[in-house]
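Figure 2 data, in text form.
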Amino acid sequence: MEFLPNDRVIVNPLRIQPTYLYELEASLVVCFTGQSRASAIIQDQMRAVTKSDENALQAMHQLKADAVDMKQALLRGNIQEVADVLNRSWKAKCRTSELVSNSMVQRVFELGLKNGAVAGKVSGAGGGGFVMFMTDPEQRYRLIGGLNANGMTASSVQFADGGAEAWATSR
């Protein structure tokens, strides 16, 4: 997505080679932190930007640059670079507000790294919700098992062309 002047937005799908997507999909694990995010995070980020907090502003600019770098890494199929950008972006996100991370998020990150993750980032505003980890595909089940054995809810991911998919069970 490109956000242009006069509220103009252009949406162009990335044309990523299927082999790159398969490797990326096999490298990803999502983990629920056990708590929802705090709604005050976005307000705190907005306060920092409107008060010209230099650290927060630089972090926001870094996140914007990381989005472009992530796009290029995906198009090149450089999964290691994707992990590097993800880590850099997580550090920048934490600088946008002290509320982005907390003891639970840090615990999930530490467990992930201990069990084979090479990168990670909290989705959404942060403060809870889901952490997306990257790992070597051969370490994916070790990572999932290690997180789940410590009371987390972790699973692999599967990309879907049509958006989110769900189904009902009789359980």
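Caption note: The chain has one domain: 27-156.
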